[in-house]
Write the structure tokens for this entry.
Amino acid sequence: MVAAGAVTAGLLAACTSQEEAPPEKKSIEVLMVDNPQMLELKKLTAEHFTKRTGIRVDFTTVPENEVREQVHKDFSAQSGRYDVATISNFETRDYARRGWLRPLDSFITKDRGFDQSDILLPIQLSLSGADGKVYAEPFYGESSFLMYRKDVFDELGLKMPEKPTWGQVASLAEEADRPEEGMSGICLRGQPGWGEMTAPLTTVVNTFGGTWFDQHWKAKLTDPGFADAAQFYVDLVRDHGEKNATKSGYAGCLRNMKNGRSAMWYDATAGAGPLEADGSPVKGKIGYVPAPVEETKSSGWLYTWAWGLQKSSEQPRSAWEFISWASSKEYEKLVGREIGWENVPAGKRESTFDRPQYKKAASAFGDATEKAIREADPRTPGVQRRPTVGIQFVGVPEFTGLGDSVSRELSAAIKGEQSVAAALRKSQDEARKVGAQYRKQP
């Protein structure tokens, strides 16, 4: 009761301070990643947001490999140059802990049209701080699943299980592998990078019973669960994966699948849209099943690009109006009407999957995508307790460097330059250094 009363009092105080705050400027600065759906937002803002609210939005767009660095630089300094920035669920909890983000709960409470309850629960959890407050709102969300060529499987007399294990997937990849015809059994990211190979690899580690760190920050990369998963992943790529796998990330596997060079592909649910788009050579030929498992009930990852409000912003109410609009049902409806329902930034709201227009546009993969996101568990993704929240990553800043380093070692193993065991021995030393930093913290 005391905690509930304190929260209620805090919300009331926040609302009062907003009401008594001086008038804000009618312009905000937004720093965001330059992916296609964000660029569509930029095009639609002046006519559909500024015209209605009078709030001008000045956008700065940068590539994904640069946006995190720029957001970190500005938010850590609390310069206030940008009011809003795109952050992912990887950064949100850490930024909240450091006091760089303004909690959004008081705005959400007053904005009844926003409907926070409509945000899918795993997405909500991934964008909340350790204090339970909301620190970002999603633009879109994704999980991961297995995509496969139904026509190829029919031709070869293969049957995909409704909920496959990785062991079954390896067997299917062997049977579907036809290198003489230019088709690999499966495509898996082999390109180094914490956001490339490390993402799908970590989901395999989770379901094989492994983890990067135990709850006390003890590094576990040479333990059986992690080591078995890494060996399995490397062997599968080497034996039945795509050519030049160490240069193949998400984009490369998407091209392979789209151009008929892979029979299966395990990756982000976002990949389904391009495969089913008009003009795609494989439209209507792809089947979608849950991420393969071993020791866990599910193993799909969880990722979202979201809007964070810098704590030092001098235009918090105007910034919230933009965030509310950009994450709203209204905006999704606008995109569906103006651009097409297949381009809606989905994967964040329950209501999206119920819209007849979206269900029709995403008929091949919509249900599988929703199921994958609903089953994602960012707090307990494996068989043991973890020190942070996250499925395909460890939610601390040091993981970017660690994930890059480990993936480079395992990429070398895919090339045959070293064994997986040797790669993990080196990686364990790096992981120990990261874990030691957090064991020292109170």
Summary: DSSP finds 18 helices and eight strands in the chain. The two ends are 27 Å apart (CA to CA). The beta strands are 27-33, 56-62, 84-88, 137-142, 144-149, 264-268, 286-290, 303-309. The first strand starts at residue 27 and ends at 33.
